[in-house]
Design brief:
647 residues; two-stranded antiparallel sheet; 6 strands; rod-shaped; disordered N terminus; transferase; EC 2.7.11.1; serine/threonine-protein kinase
Length: 647
Amino acid sequence: MLSTFLLNPPWRMQSLWRRWSPIKTSLTTWPGTSCWMRTSGSETPTSPRARRRSRPPAPTPGSRTGRARPPRRRASPRPRPRQRSRPLWRPPWAPTQPQRSRTWRARVRARTGPVEEITGALPHLGLNGNLKKSPELEEHPPMPWEGPERLESLESLLPRPKRKVSQRYSDTGSTSDSLNLSGDMSTREMGSISVRQDSRFSNKTLKRTRKFVVDGVEVSVTTSKIIGDDEKKDEEMRFLRRQELRDLRLLQKEEHRAQALLNAKLDVQKDQMQRRFDQDMNAKKKYYDTELENLEKHQKQTIEKMETDHAVHLRDETKRIRSEQEKEHTRFQEQLKNRKKEVKREVEKMPRSQRKESLKQRMGSFQQMKQTEEQKFLAAQKEKLDSLLKKITSENKREISETERQCLEKKQHLIREREAAIWDMEEHNLHERHQLLKQQLKDQYFLQRHQLLKKHEKEQEQMQCYNQRMVELLKVRQQQEKGRLPKIQRSEGKTRMVMFKKSLRINSTGSASEDREKIKQFSQQEEKRQKAERLHQQHKHDNQMREMVGQCDSNVRELQQLQNEKCHLLIENETQRLKSLDEMHSQQLREWRELLKPRKKTLEEELNQKKREQEVFFKMSEESECLNPSSPNKLTKFLPYTDSSTT
């Protein structure tokens, strides 16, 4: 097809163009596509934009489901037959199937390269080396279905007779031939070609058709969306970023779960420590209360036994002393009787006349002396008995008071031991609580460090994946550019060679050998230029790869620096919290010791007060002692001292 098209003379093509010009129906092509489509008297391409414009109407806001409402059915029972579109018009040389037409155009494009872009961007090459627009292309009438750029591209490929060309280009006065093309132009051409080809072949159209039945009528809604490589890459990056965020959220949930478990464990430890302290305190108090109770019971039993022993001993001593005194009184009575007998014997020795008077006098004086001595003797015995009983009673009381004092000292010693044990337990509880809080704080920060390290490992893994993905994308892009460059160079070389040959035909002043030599030199220069382009591309790719690797390394270093700063901040925060915890413990211990001094002072005052009360009690008991301890019906009894704190 291409050979037939190129071998036809231009006047034959012009006659064909004139034959097709009155046709009303026109066919157009869309850049980047080769589809033909008829719309309302003219053919429109099925481009992405056209398909996006041909979307069905949006659903009405009043509908409940938010879907497009189908049109109401007419009253006629028979449905209206679907109108078929008119067949596509094809040129005489085009094949029967429209797909073959696309293949033919693809063949033309593959043979000649992307001419429509190149010819639209490149001006014509003149004889003096200047680039100028060909006047022959400006004078040619455009095709009805094609634009001026398409016409110029086709016209530039057609062979021209030399006589017409010489007549048309007779006004160019320069005879110098140009063999070199500008490097800037070639670079600009290559850039424009690559950009346009990228923009042409990178876009894709995504169609989605939804079919549903509403009121017995099948309704289909088709939505189309243009997806480019950038959008696909952005969507892929967003998907990967969402996956990374999902992983981070899962890691954060695990962190919250671990922290909740640790907090529950720490609360249980605090409760257990407080419960154990209360149990130890109650056990210690119960032990000392039991000891005090046993001491009081033992004291009571001892005092009662001592009182019983003292009463028995006092009764026995009283009986013994009374029996001795009775014996002494009997001996004293015997002595008085003997003295009375002596008085009678003395009186009997006197004369009988004097006996009666002297006996009466002597017996009167004897009776007086007897009464006096007997009274003295009884008084002495009573005094002796009283002194002995008082002595025994005082000894018993002294013994009881000494026992009471010893019991009180033992009781106060137990009270002091109990208070000291309570104070030691309180202080030990403060230290133990401080150590527990300190250990719990260390456990919390250990968990935070562990979670932070896991998070840092996850971030580093994500960063490595990101860097690897960027390097792979760069490699893929460079590989695509490297694979696309030979095609672009071949197409561009063909186009430049065609343009150069055409310029030689237009401006030819020498022989055919000179033209061949110029063509050979031009091809060598093209090879050098293409090689330079390949080297430039390789250097550019190497620089891009080095920059990408450096950027990845800098990203990794920056991430590591941020992670190290986070770790240092966490360690500093932990040190500060531990320091504040130690300071708070020192403050609590200092306040507790300050409150301990008045407690000790109050306890000592209470114990001394009890001692004084005991001493006063025993002094009062001595003063309230019975004045006549020798009476047989009176027994001395000492009541034990009872502590008011234990009753």
